[in-house]
Amino acid sequence: MKQLLEILQSGTAYLEKRQIEEARLNMEHLLAHVLGCRRLDLYLRFNETIPEATLSTLRELLRRRGEAEPLQHLLGTVEFCGHELVCDHRALIPRPETETLVELILKKFTTPPARVLDMATGSGCIGLSLAKAWPASELTLADISEDALDLARLNASRLSVSARFIRSDLFEKITGAFDLIIANLPYIPAAEIPTLSPEVRRDPHIALNGGPDGLRIVERFLNDAPARLHPGALIALELSHDQGAPVAARCVELGYLHATTAADLAGIRRFVFATAPVKELQA
Length: 283
Fold this sequence. Notes:
The protein is α/β, with parallel strands linked by helices. The chain has 2 domains: 2-67; 91-275, 3-Layer(aba) Sandwich (Rossmann fold). Helix content is 36%, strand content 19%. The protein contains 9 helices and 11 strands. The chain has helices at residues 4-17, 23-35, 52-66, 71-75, 96-108, 125-133, 146-158, 216-224, 244-253; strands spanning 2-3, 49-50, 77-80, 83-86, 115-119, 138-143, 164-167, 178-183, 229-238, 257-262, 271-275. The strands form 3 sheets. A 7-stranded mixed β-sheet has the order 7-6-5-8-9-11-10, with helices on both faces. The protein has a two-stranded antiparallel ribbon with strand order 1-2. The mean pLDDT is 96.
């Protein structure tokens, strides 16, 4: 049997040879996972010997990580806004920048919105995090993928959140009006998808492909959303690093009010907020 420190070092070297970023951190997470402990607890157990059965499980996880299977898929969960969510191949892996979007949304409301729609919900990370902060709000989670909705249902159950789940191609099956609509839509130009990291390419293709310019689905969303917004309601979008300004400008062209961009923690203005257009009175 080998000692924990030796296993940690050899596993890190294995991942480094396979050009896995943050190899040491990845190895620590995998080792903590198979041992059923916190990652920081490993530093108190360096001299501990690890049974062969545990090593066998770890070797298989290492092999899969070396083949660029995302760490979050191997661990089965991801931390998002202080909540542990199930994470697998059915939806995008929740990203740290999306946590910033949730925080920005929460700051914009002194009173929780009555009706909230999380469009293209994926794992449900955005809508469910907002629902934990706003338990009185009525939440709808929508996605074109039934697999993604199944994952969102599982996460809603884990977080004890009540929500309505609708399989819909954008607003196709959506009825009623909302006070807040959030959307983290596919925004990668189709030609760029092959250039993404192997880990990102493990995400569902339908959740990545934004059409030839990356904004095909965003444009449809902006055109259709006003019919599902209460007067004064807010839309909140997450976009790619270079799409915030042009999408905000497009919002203005379409009659949205107060269109602004906001930055993630890296200073990238990838978030767009805008208020519902003023609806013309019918004669």
